[in-house]
Amino acid sequence: MELMLMDLEYIRRLGIWIVDWMFVDRLDPRYRKGVEHFVRVAINNAENVEEIYCPCVKCGNNVYLDSEELKSHLLCNGIDKSYTRWIWHGEDVLPTLSSNLEDDSDIEGDGFDENFDRVDDLINDLKQSTEDPTQVEMFDRLAGDAIKPLYPGSSLTRLSATLKLYSLKAKNGWSDKSFTSLLQLLSEILPDGNELPKRTYDAKKILCPMGVDYVKIHACPNDCILYRKDYKDLNECPKCEASRYKLPKKNPKKILGSQLKSCGRISDDKIRHPADSTQWKTIDHLFPEFGSEARNLRLGLCTDGMNPFGSLSSQWSTWPVLLTIYNLPPWLCMKRKYLMLSLLISGPKQPGNDIDVYLEPLIDDLKLLWDEGVEVYDAYHGETFNLRAMIFCTINDFSAYGNLSGYTVKGAKACPICEEDTISDRLVHGGKNKKMKPFNGKQELRNPPNILSGREVYEKVKNIENNFGKPYKKPSNGTLYKKKSIFWDLPYWKHLSVRHCIDVMHVEKNVCDSLIGTLLNIPGKSKDGVKAREDMVAQKIRLN
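Above: the chain sequence. Below: its structure as tokens.
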């Protein structure tokens, strides 16, 4: 750990105000004199004397006041002590060399000196104050910019022009992007061969020798001491004996997939992690080259529509496509820093079943990561290896399930497991389809349906011709699948037994909340309404 301290004497040489009166008691005569001086400076630099920013501790330069109210606020509330550069009252944000602030000799310790208006004196002071050869070279470059004309015949130098423009940037709150655009426009307007910087970055490089110096001080990793004064030559902390230079040991909980099998994972018949599933083991068996490298990534893909503007009536839709790493231990899988935003689909309408058009770049990258892989450096082991990756499954709500898989998740045959064997009935009063046999008031004695393998589903969809685009009507293909999903382009997709999953949140929200709300008769949450009772009577589940 390190502490950075600004060199106050260096700040004074730059002409930055260390305004002593701001830090004394408000009853001190110096404070009143300082306030009077500040108000005069603010009036002299104000475009409208009835609208001056108030820097008192309550207003914080967010409120306009006239000069009398400004003085009253400063005397009663006190000035914000962090406001040492008066950029909203006429002072440049940089140690400007041509300040228009009024000097008042009766203010003690205000740190302002007109001698700093001279560029050459400032540069000489800076150059003489350091013995570092690199710093001397930097100051030589600064001195060169101070005498180099902006263009032949100009009275401005490269340094003075940059300073004035940067001062305007600071006063008016311009962003770096807008300032770069301004510099590029001015460079085109000025004569050819002008020396004006073209980017904000270049302007900062010109002014960097005029920045504030600092001193790095090492600290004990346990915050016991600073390595200064009597401790400056020590290599370890005299209190806790921690090393001054040795890095802390890596936390094994933060190790990626290469350490999943050796981080204390319990191996039994219970599923605590996707690595315990049969699908994980099937991949290891079918693709031993992929499974033998524990660092190869198995990813979960998640997507859903969201409204970025917070208004449900807004005519705009945004679909983020996220990837999560299942190689990680369960407590890290869903941490924000391990989620990857791979795509952001934005437009006035949701992509719906045409989402495959937008997923194509991601699928191309995933095919590359499966077939060839990429060279990656493993910082934990200090070696490079060929990283490969695959989509382990997708996790979405039910509507997004249909968009990604291509299955029709609405209507009489909406169950993607039962498919054609789905027995449903239309609720006349509720206006929804429901499964007939599971909800007919009788005990269900049938065996669970046979779940189709990936190969069996692929045989159903392999001959479907996709015709994406909203204007085109989707032709009937005789199946419950509206398209051949782009995920079938992945070589391993047909070998996965579970390709699409429903997220837990929607199950909790739509099923558990509804059950609890109905059982406890929670207002607004219960499904036991008039229409539900009428449908139960029509289905002969209830008498009334």
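The CA atoms of residues 224 and 240 lie 7 Å apart.
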